[in-house]
Design a protein that fits this description.
The complex is a heterodimer of chains A (452) and B (265). Chain A is 63% helix and 5% strand. With 452 residues, chain A is mainly α. Chain A has two domains: 68-207, no CATH class; 227-449, MetI-like fold. In chain A, strands 2-1-3 form a three-stranded antiparallel beta sheet. With 265 residues, chain B is an alpha/beta fold. Chain B has ten helices and ten strands. Chain B is globular. The chains are: A mainly alpha (452), B alpha/beta (265). Chains A and B meet through helix 15 and helix 16 of A and helix 2, strand 6, helix 3 and helix 6 of B. Chain B: Part of the ABC transporter complex PstSACB involved in phosphate import. Responsible for energy coupling to the transport system. Chain B: InterPro entries: AAA+_ATPase, ABC_transporter-like_ATP-bd, ABC_transporter-like_CS, P-loop_NTPase, PstB-like. Chain B: This is Phosphate ABC transporter ATP-binding protein, PhoT family. Chain B: Residues 18-260 form the ABC transporter domain.
Chain lengths: 452, 265
């Protein structure tokens, strides 16, 4: 719009000779629309931030308590009459005593502790009092005895897991009112727990077992831990890193720097982009069909999970790497070629180091994605209940294991409300791993970028 | 009109370094270079001038096969370096480019130290047996690039931290470090200020003693100042090639005259 066509005093147009100190109508409208747009932006960002805060705080509130655990300290007399009837210390015979043989020992120790601290509650017999201890405790005791058979006949101090309901009582999940309606716990038992706490027999400690213990059955949420899941996830990430980084970088370098520009390359490019958008469960079916049914790899094994996640991560890494390679200015390639470097020398000496920060960022984002992936792992059987730790690599890659996100899913499907807390705790662990990986990505990028 | 030192312009009988015969270059279906025949002399600065898009840079890049990196580019005809066809199937472009170095329009030092920038070429071509020899080559090249005094105390500093003019001289030092026989320069001063330009031009004049230098330039004054031979390109044709003095004072072709007097281009 030029001055020739607009009338000098148009109602909306710019007035000729108008004062700069007054805003004309057009400028006002423009400013108003800009202000509206900014406001919308602020609102959009706020909604996002509020949603994030809500999500994180709900997870933290539900899950933070899973890092604390109630323990009851008892002096258990390892009675030789029960554990080692023959008295010859033969480990095979001792191993024949099942966890049922250990339960009475705990019951006796509990009785003694109540008597010693004067914590007796009316209407609560010894059997009910012993129910304060987790059903996992006899198994722990048995493991200890099998590891230290020479301790038989001595009185040993044990820190035994309290039952899930007792643990829940101190975390506010179980109350006197709810205990009245609960078949698994009675108000009297809770009163006993209160007294024991006052006496210092019952303590709340940091829950290291949450990170190291394997999963536990539906009725023992207090014993459930992430040990196997963390190991499984680490194994899978190792496999994904070792396979997808070299494959992805090699593929990208070839496609970006060496491949002839023809219809085939275009076709491959389109397919790689599409592959990145394929729903992850499809990769799970692929893994089930190829790696388990055809190749005959074991189910629930980190090697299969790792291979499936590698397939999923490859497109992400290839796309990120190609973008990073493209971002390297062509003048650097020219410079290298111009002084007689071969194509490969120019790529490996100059282009690749410059693209490294981008490649690493892409790789770690891909790994983080793989770490949080659940759906394909369900299909290849990693949802199974695994209590045995996988062996150390490489054999361990073929042992059954779980994975962090699958463990979360697994726990949320269980009945006992204590598992909700465990699942939220597992999400926190998963998030911490992701944050660590992202920090690693940022630090690596800084390190490489600092080289001017 | 031009500050051409015409006394020096007498070109004596120098041997032909690069001979181009009937060179055609196609970009896909575009015929970019048509029937170019030219003999570039040894120990001489030859300037390629002409309006934008006339093909002078394209032709320059043919001389060390930098056009190989462009998929759609096709070169026909013969380009002989010391009588050997550089487009022969047996010629490895990598070896060729070690003999025919190139300096680009935009200074493009590697994002490495000044030392590594210069040492890179000798390293990949195995010109130095040990660190001492490499140090020597680096110093010699930087001196020849007329930048030694400015950077000798900070050889470990990044090459990208230098000023534009210094970067370009570093690139020239990097190019001469591989001891080429021909040095191609694609508008080496277009990104530089007049002072840096003067330094680079001075340098080009010194390089003439050892190399055959081919320079593409948009500045006719620059062509007149630094070159002994000038080739004028127009729409993919080599219109006129001759002594710089003659081209600028007494052009044969009317198109050349129009261009140097500013009527076309």
């Amino acid at each position: 719009m030029t001055d020739f066509t607009s009338s000098p005093t148009g109602a909306n147009g710019r007035r000729r000779g108008g004062s700069l100190l007054e805003l004309d109508a057009r400028t006002k409208r423009r400013n108003a629309s800009e202000a509206r747009f900014r406001l919308m932006g602020v609102i959009a960002v706020s909604i996002g931030v509020i949603a994030l805060i809500g999500l994180l705080s709900s997870i933290l509130m539900n899950g933070a308590s899973s890092f604390r655990q109630t323990y009851i300290t008892l002096n258990v007399f390892l009675d030789p009459a029960k554990l080692d009837k023959a008295g010859d210390g033969d480990l095979e015979k001792i191993a024949k005593v099942t966890t049922f043989g250990y339960a009475p020992l705990i019951q006796k120790a509990m009785e003694a502790a109540i008597k010693e601290n004067g914590a007796a509650v009316d209407g609560l017999n010894a059997k009910k009092a012993a129910e304060l201890i987790s059903k996992e405790a006899p198994a722990d005791l048995r493991r200890f005895v099998l590891a230290n058979p020479d301790k038989i006949g001595e009185t040993v101090e044990f820190s035994l897991l309290a039952a899930g309901r007792i643990d829940g009582y101190f975390k506010g999940r179980v109350t006197m009112e709810s205990a009245q309606l609960d078949r698994n716990i009675s108000p009297e038992q809770l009163m006993l727990a209160d007294k024991l706490k006052q006496a210092g027999v019952l303590q709340i400690k940091f829950n290291w077992a949450f990170f190291t213990a394997p999963d536990a059955s539906d009725t023992r949420p207090e014993a459930a831990g992430l040990g196997v899941a963390i190991l499984g996830s680490i194994y899978m990430m190792l496999i994904v890193l070792c396979l997808s980084l070299p494959l992805g970088v090699a593929a990208s370098i070839y496609l970006e720097e060496f491949a002839p520009q023809n219809r085939w390359t275009d076709l491959i490019e389109v397919n790689i982009s599409n592959l990145a958008a394929v729903p992850s469960i499809v990769f799970g079916i692929l893994g089930l069909a190829i790696f388990i049914n055809i190749a005959g790899l074991p189910q629930s094994a980190p090697v299969v999970g790792g291979l499936v996640l590698t397939l999923m991560t490859l497109p992400t890494i290839i796309i990120a790497t190609r973008a990073a390679l493209k971002a390297v200015p062509p003048s650097i390639r020219d410079a290298a070629l111009g002084i007689g470097a071969s194509k490969m020398q120019s790529v490996f000496h100059h282009v690749l180091p410059l693209a490294m920060p981008g490649i690493l960022t892409g790789t770690i984002i891909g790994l983080a994605q793989a770490l949080g992936e659940t759906a394909p792992l369900l299909l290849i059987g990693m949802v199974a209940f695994v209590r045995e730790y996988p062996a150390s690599p490489p054999e361990g890659f073929f042992d059954p294991a779980s994975a962090l996100p699958v463990q979360v899913y697994n726990w949320t499907t269980r009945g006992d409300p204590a598992f909700v807390e465990r699942a939220s705790g597992a999400i926190i662990v998963l998030l911490v791993f992701l944050v660590i990986m992202n920090i690693a990505a940022i630090m690596l990028r800084r390190r490489f970028e600092r080289r001017w | 009109m031009y500050d051409a030192p015409s006394l020096e312009k007498t070109v004596d009988q120098k041997s032909t370094k690069i001979a181009a015969k009937d060179v055609q270059v196609y970009y896909g279906n575009t015929h970019a270079i048509k029937d170019v025949n030219v003999d570039l002399l040894d120990k001489t600065v030859t300037a390629f001038i002409g309006p934008s898009g006339c093909g002078k840079s394209t032709f320059l890049r043919c001389l060390n096969r930098m056009n190989d990196t462009i998929d759609v580019c096709r070169v026909e005809g013969d380009i002989l370096l010391d009588g050997e066809d550089i487009y022969d199937k047996r010629v490895d472009p990598v070896q060729l480019r070690a003999k025919v170095g190139m300096v680009f329009q935009k200074p493009n030092p590697f994002p490495k130290s000044i030392y590594d920038n210069v040492a890179y070429g000798p390293r990949i071509h195995g010109l130095a047996r040990n660190k001492a020899e490499l140090d020597e080559i680096v110093e010699k090249s930087l001196r020849r690039g007329a930048i030694w005094d400015e950077v000798k105390d900070r050889l470990d500093a990044p090459g990208t931290g230098l000023s534009g003019g210094q970067q370009q001289r570093l690139c020239i030092a990097r190019a001469v470090a591989t001891e080429p026989e021909v040095l191609l320069m694609d508008e080496p001063c277009s990104a530089l200020d007049p002072i840096a330009t003067a330094q680079v031009e001075e340098l080009i004049d010194e390089l003439r003693e050892q190399y055959s230098v081919v320079i593409v330039t948009h500045s006719m004054q620059q062509a007149a100042r630094v070159s002994q031979k000038t080739a004028f390109f127009h729409l993919g044709n080599l219109v006129e090639y001759g002594d710089t003095t003659q081209i600028f004072t007494n052009p044969v072709d009317p198109r050349t005259e129009s261009y140097i007097t500013g009527r076309i281009g």
